[in-house]
Amino acid sequence: MISSRFRRFAIVSLVGNLIAAVAMVALYHYVALQNFEEIRAEQNMELARSLSNTIVDEVAELHALAATSSWAELQASPEIARFAENVEREIEQLQILELNVFDPSGLVLYSTERQRIGARVLMNAGVERAAAGEEVSAIVRQDSFNRFDRVVEDQDMVESYLPLIDDAGNVIGVFEIHSDVTGFYERLLGTQRIVVIAPVSLFAAAGLVLAFRPPAVFGPDADTLFPAWQQRVRDDYSCQIRIRGDHQSRDSHTAECCAGHDGPPEPDKADE
Prior knowledge:
Layout (H helix, E strand, L loop, with lengths): L3 H49 L3 H12 L3 H6 L1 H13 L5 E7 L5 E4 L13 H7 L4 E5 L4 E2 L4 E2 L4 E9 L5 E10 L1 H31 L9 H38 L13
Helix pairs in contact: 1-6
């Protein structure tokens, strides 16, 4: 028979273990996600630096071309075609979703989405901050609002904005890349499921075994063990009382017997 006291203890332990497991999962998710996003944003920025170093001189030429060409002429120019060929060769094996090059005012000098070439972006904080010399990166989750491009993205991505600086130290443009990070999030969630399922299952199984175990699994229950122990203590105590009482009774009887005899009888004077 499973004691009610033991069962309550087991249920409370189970609930406490589950709460601890949930807290551990939440902490792991927060720490892992923060570290992943910081590392991935820095990796994307390093990629942007590497790619931008190969195109700085060509960006200066595109800037001069845009100043004397219309939107249609810029899109159809052989310089843009040659620039696109070089860029696409560099990013062919990379998980880059989009690459854009702007002049400091936000004019699109080049984009992997060709229809954007010659357009001008307005109110893009990433372009504005990079044009001022600052490097900017951000993680954008699927179905969330991209605060830089002001659109809702349809996949997980990291975007980076990097100032393009010439040999004189002047910012001549802004380099932007969007990289796909869907696979990284999928692996992160897969690892999280493994980390979560193992301890939660273990805690739950231990709690269920403690709460609903067969009587013979861990030995006698508290309600059967403690009363037997208490009974033995009471029996020992009663026995000691009886022994002490017997000793006291024998001492009293001896005293009474001694009180009836004041000493050996005196000799009779007549006999003398």
